[in-house]
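Bench notes, afternoon.
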Amino acid sequence: MQSAGNRVLWTGLKPNVGGTVVRSRFLLIVMISLLVIQAASAAELSGFLGDIATLKDFRAMRASSSDPNLAGNGDARPIAPGKTLTLAELKGPGRIAHIWFTIADNERFYGKKLVLRMYWDGEATHSVEAPLNDFFCQGHGMDVVVNSLPFRVTSNGRGRNCYFPMPFLRSARIEVTNDGKEGCHAFYWPDRGRRLGPGSEDRGPARQNDSA
């Protein structure tokens, strides 16, 4: 609204007070979110590196599909329909620290048909049971990328990583069963863990059951 002499002219313009308030609130939320993320990242980094100079009471161990012949290149295993492949048989006390899988399988939705099972301390019944893709947070048997702290799946959904710590007291066994109609051509894995010393308190079994 403008004044010209004794006349008042209406320009059709209004101060956008509501929009200004919305933008201010949005900027405030963004700034708070950035501060929270920065604090969480700092805490996470401190957790990973805070004890880097402390002597550890464990031995780093690994179970993998590597070719027993060091000069060979047969670093994968096939799984025929209806068959079970043992990925690791470990002696405790210990803790699985990292699991990585990549797979060559042409059957549709093979991630729902390869079933992962884990057994702790000599038990007859599995404590962990899940279709492979479900375990790695890939829904509907699809090969998709996942980016989280405990799970990270890369390479168009085929490089599967799990960083959940899985402690056990006496033993651990990891298996994969092919419930599909076609054979899995190649299953690659290295599972990394720790053989714990006598003073370690990290010995409880890890449990999960998702047989959907």
